[in-house]
Structures are given as C-alpha cells and as structure tokens.
Design a protein that fits this description.
The chain is mainly β and 108 residues long. Helix content is 7%, strand content 31%.
C-alpha cells in the first residue's frame, strides 16, 4: 500500500520549525528500478525520485518544483489491459514542468 503523509504549518512557532513535512513510500513493486530523489539533471527546478523501469522511465510518484507545485501518486492496482501503456508516473512529471500560473487539470 502506498502512503503519503503531509503535515502543514503555515505559521511555525520557531524559526527552526518546518512549514511542510512530507513523507511517502513507493512499495508497488520492490523489484522496480528507480532513482533516488534529486534535482533532474539539467532541470534544477524539479526535485523527485524517478521511475527507471524500461518503457516507463522518467515518471515519478512524488515530486515538487521550485515554484511550489507538488505532484503525488499512490497505487491503484487493477488488471492491466495494455501492458505496453505508458506509466501513470508521467502524469506527475508534466505538471511539475509547467509555469506557476498554469493548471494541472489537463493531466488529471
């Protein structure tokens, strides 16, 4: 089961407190290769882990950009009709690349 945990405090009590604490796991398939969270090579505005499974590489389950957009994905297991279909993780990466004023609606 995938879990995402948020704790948001818009006015932290001390200067050392965090406004956002975010934790997530990715346990859909333990054997699935992934890259640890980091900024994306030439794109230093997006921070996320990356799916490295062949044919689905470049998707993510959790990411954030420097403009404050956050994209998250939990699993939804069902029989796959098309085993060669693009991974759902690519739905997270496109909104993170867009400008701050744009909406994520087209990706939902």
């Amino acid at each position: 089961m995938c879990i995402i945990f948020f704790k948001f405090d818009p006015r932290p009590v001390s200067k050392n407190a965090y406004r956002l604490i975010l934790a997530a796991n990715r346990d859909e398939f333990y054997h699935r290769p992934s890259r640890a969270a980091d900024f994306w090579g030439n794109n230093n505005e997006v921070l996320s882990g990356l799916d490295m499974e062949e044919g689905k590489e470049g998707g993510t389950w959790l990411g954030i950009n420097t403009r404050g957009k956050l994209a998250a994905l939990t699993n939804y297991l069902q029989p796959r009709l098309d085993r060669d279909a693009r991974g759902r993780g690519s739905c997270q990466t496109q909104p993170l690349r867009t400008r701050a004023g744009s909406t994520c609606s087209p990706y939902l």
